[in-house]
Predict the structure.
Amino acid sequence: MVGVSGGHDGKIELKEAQRLLGYLPSDQREGLLLIVLEGMSYGETVEIADCVVGTMKSCVFRARRQLQA
């Protein structure tokens, strides 16, 4: 769970981010959260997700593109 400091606007933004993340497929959501929020390297994330680096990079790329749409 990600915390937010500040007032009401911060809470609204956090809820919106959680809602949007919920639309992503689980592999994309996992990759994005590990890379962006946890600050892990691709090498670390592929050990957790049990995949290859190219797959993880693709998942994160697709997740970012989906959230920008």
In short: The chain has a mean pLDDT of 86. The chain has four helices and no strands. The CA atoms of residues 3 and 14 lie 8 Å apart.
